[in-house]
């Protein structure tokens, strides 16, 4: 991803000072063979960090001028991949994306559901903070975020995953912008996103569901029957309590949802709903 500050400076705008991270390679000749040593910054997808790898390329049979000419294409590619245009030096009192994320974690994140918060933190640690954390807020614009989108749009990553990562960023910016208008916002509709491949869901057939229920016992059998006969989500079924079942009116009230052993509210307000109590469930409930 190209550095946001470098982009603005090339357009004639004002931005923070920059420190160059450009490499022309370190050249040596040994036994009449010219070689070039250069650093390459390799991104680690697992922890979202960069590791500097020192590489060397030799040019047997070429003189100094020919060796350097042959090496130039490699250095150009490495400098681009290393984000070598510039590395931000943030002014002392300039707020960055990392500062906004820290405020969001303190003010907004505690009110998010655990599962959604877990996903957001994964996106932040693996992608957003490593790529954009040091960007000053005045430099965070559509062109900057588009560069971020391009950098995470790799062949092995589904377009939907890229969209979810970007939605985490835009969601945090929008939430914090409500209380601080100095925080910029970026709309997903202003970005060019990679194509999304529609996943083909796998459904169990009626016969498969019957065989699964027949092979189960005790509380697991009841859970499977509730899932099959009501259409409830698994977290909603696991969050059911005795008081949520109206045996007289034969209805089940969805009021809670369980995640990692903790009870919370359902996914959304419409998710707090009521299901008819199907007759096959009576015997199953009675056996618990």
Task: Walk me through this protein's architecture.
Mean pLDDT is 83; it is low at 5-20 and 84-88. The protein is of the alpha+beta class and 288 residues long. The protein has helices at 4-10, 64-81, 97-107, 114-132, 142-152, 159-177, 206-215, 218-230, 234-238, 280-286; strands spanning 18-19, 26-30, 33-44, 49-59, 87-88, 245-246, 251-253, 257-259, 262-264, 274-276. The termini are far apart. β6 and β7 form a beta hairpin. α8 packs antiparallel against α10. The strands form four sheets. The protein has a three-stranded antiparallel beta sheet, with helices on one face. It has a three-stranded antiparallel beta sheet with strand order 6-7-10, with no helix packed on it. The chain has a two-stranded antiparallel sheet with strand order 1-5. The chain contains ten helices and ten strands.
């Amino acid at each position: 991803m190209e550095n946001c500050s470098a982009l603005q400076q090339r357009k004639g705008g004002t931005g923070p000072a920059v420190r160059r991270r450009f490499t022309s390679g370190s050249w040596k000749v040994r036994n009449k063979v010219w070689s070039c040593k250069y650093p390459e910054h390799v991104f680690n997808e697992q922890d979202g960090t960069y590791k500097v790898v020192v590489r060397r390329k030799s040019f047997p049979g070429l003189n100094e001028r020919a060796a350097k000419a042959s090496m130039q294409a490699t250095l150009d590619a490495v400098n681009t991949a290393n984000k070598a245009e510039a590395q931000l030096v943030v002014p002392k009192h300039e707020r960055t994306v990392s500062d906004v994320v820290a405020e969001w974690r303190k003010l907004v994140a505690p009110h998010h559901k655990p599962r959604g918060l877990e996903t957001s933190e994964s996106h932040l640690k693996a992608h957003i903070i490593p790529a954009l954390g040091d960007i000053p807020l005045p430099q965070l614009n559509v062109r900057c975020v588009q560069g971020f989108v391009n950098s995470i749009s790799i062949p092995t990553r589904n377009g939907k995953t890229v969209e979810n990562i970007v939605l985490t960023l835009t969601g945090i910016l929008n939430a914090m912008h409500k209380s601080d208008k100095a925080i910029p916002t970026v709309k997903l509709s202003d970005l060019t996103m990679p194509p999304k491949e529609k996943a083909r869901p796998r459904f169990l057939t009626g016969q498969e569901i019957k065989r699964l229920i027949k092979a189960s016992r005790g509380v697991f059998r009841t859970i499977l029957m509730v899932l099959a006969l009501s259409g409830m989500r698994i977290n909603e079924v696991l969050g059911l309590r005795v008081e949520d079942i109206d045996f007289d009116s034969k209805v089940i009230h969805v009021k809670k949802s369980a995640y990692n052993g903790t009870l919370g509210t359902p996914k959304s307000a419409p998710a707090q709903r009521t299901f008819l109590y199907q007759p096959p469930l009576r015997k199953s409930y009675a056996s618990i």
